[in-house]
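Lab notebook, bench 4. Still working through the backlog of constructs that have no structural model yet. Next entry is a single chain of 107 residues. Request: give me the structure tokens for it.
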Amino acid sequence: MRLILRIAGTWLIGLALVLLVVDGTKSLGANAVVFTSLADLWTSVHPPSLQGVEAFFESRFFAQLLDAALKAVLQYPAFSVFGVLGIVLALAGRTPRRERYLRADQI
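Model written out:
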């Protein structure tokens, strides 16, 4: 399971870097800082799936809360959403650190 989390995290971090390069290229061309929001990216890739997710959230118990959370996440830059998710997955998949506490005479 840890291997799958680390691989998925690495892929998402790679995707975030690609999206950051794309936004940087657009920024250089426009002579201004340009960020592609997650909503813009999702609509350019596959609009029916975004509508499906919105319809799914509308049918849930906490529909207003889920709708507000989805709209907030969709306004963030796409590279930051994928980057944070990738870092979280990569950290969740790392091996647990074993702390050893030694006395001064054991060193």
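Notes after review: The radius of gyration is 20 Å. The chain has five helices and no strands. Flag for follow-up if needed.
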